[in-house]
Amino acid sequence: MIEFKLPSLGADMDEGTLLEWCVKPGDSLKRGQVVAIVDTTKAAIDVECWDEGTVDELIVAPGTKIPVDTVLALLRAPGETVEESARWKEQHRGAQLAAQAAAPVLAAPAVAPVVAVVPSAGRRRVSPAARRYAEQMGIDLDALTGSGPQGAIVLEDVQKAASKAVPLQPKPVVGAVAVAAERAVEMRRTIAAAMARSKREIPHYYLATEVPLEVASRWLGERNAGLPVTERLLMAVLFIKAVAKALLRFPEFNGFVREAQFVPSVDVHVGVAISLRQGGLIAPAILNTGQLPLEQLMRELGDLVKRARAFTLRSSELSMPTVTVTNLGEQGADRVFGIIYPPQVALVGFGSVRERAWVENGQLKLIPAVTATLAADHRASDGHRGSLFLAEVSALLQQPQTL
Amino acid sequence: MDESTIRDAISRTLAGIAPEVSLEQIVATVPLRDQIDLDSMDWLNFIVGLHEQLHVDIPEADYRKLRTLNDLIAYLRAKSG
Known about the structure:
By secondary structure, chain A is α+β, with helices and mostly antiparallel strands. Chain A has two domains: 2-102, CATH 2.40.50.100; 203-402, Chloramphenicol Acetyltransferase (2-Layer Sandwich), CATH 3.30.559.10. Chain A has helices spanning 82-102, 128-137, 155-164, 176-201, 214-225, 235-249, 294-309, 315-319, 383-397, and strands at 2-5, 15-21, 28-29, 33-39, 44-49, 53-58, 65-67, 71-76, 204-212, 255-258, 261-264, 270-272, 274-275, 281-282, 285-286, 312-314, 323-327, 346-350, 354-360, 363-377. Chain B has helices at residues 3-17, 32-35, 40-54, 69-80. Chain B is built from four helices and no strands. The interface between A and B is medium-sized, with 24 and 21 residues.
């Protein structure tokens, strides 16, 4: 019998509310299948299961708030017999239920949601604030059209519906503006907790280097000129690919510190910091970043940004980043010295791409350039290697055709 | 193509990217990116959206001509014939 537990959804999410099950007892699962949707302060996450088996029992009910590692369901392993399942349950269930009772599963919300929670055929995109307000006001989300990114339902949509609807419940104590504010406060709190923990536990060191982008900029311009608008590449994609490739030679910047011990990761999954409109930050991963050709990387980045801003992501995108890249874009500051997202050991930053005065062979010229920075965990690496790593990223960006 | 068709297309495209902004709030003579938070990904999605709605291709070299809403409308009118 396999215990399917709520996976970690990143350092700043240690609990979530189970919204709905996407499978039922008797369903056989493929690796990577989405089995449930869990709500967090930042998004509704499609939780994937990486085991194969058959669903035996769903343990947690929709609407329940649960910490990470809670057993959500039991799965029968392929080839497991009925006797083996029964024996497992006899041996484990008593202990498991006692353990989950001792570490109390946080209770279901006091107001029972009026919205029926059934697996929806089309995946509905709803902001966490809208969902909470809809529950409170007794608004059926299915009846609404979303005005947010990708048609996501946002708080304003629910507010409009609420003002038209006949109230099914007595006027709530907390209004829509307060719900949004509350949600924003929660988001800030979760980010604050992760960042404060990072600064407490990780001895950061910081390095910066100027990366000339004359060659990369020209290469990109020529390449984009010949392509339809839907296939144009952004400079950000070159940055991400260069970091992923450089990490192959510098493994001490790619992995996790667990219990004060650095464990390098074989795979490179670059987390990309994405700012959420109207506040908040999330850094989901593009899996196997170094193996993707630039065109595919661009498509996946675009899709990831859209989904993050429509409040729906997959659990593997949140639990698997092995390093993070933050790119401020051309309207931001020159350079960014970030805070490492635990349990990772490095954060690579790129400031705005600007025209700079540059000296080459005793000659002064004007070229586009960017300041690349590294924030790294001194328990896993030293400044000398950090310095060489940044130099490698810069060198790769001088040969964009090889990325 | 007339101006109101173009304005509608701009409005619709923008709504999918920056839903918190409405075109009425935009000052037509001030650079767009000073008024709306649009990073390079948003800008590209904006260009793609306009292409889908108006069937006008905007080469990268022309991006810098599109600083204000007025610039954008004039450009799109000229290009759409």
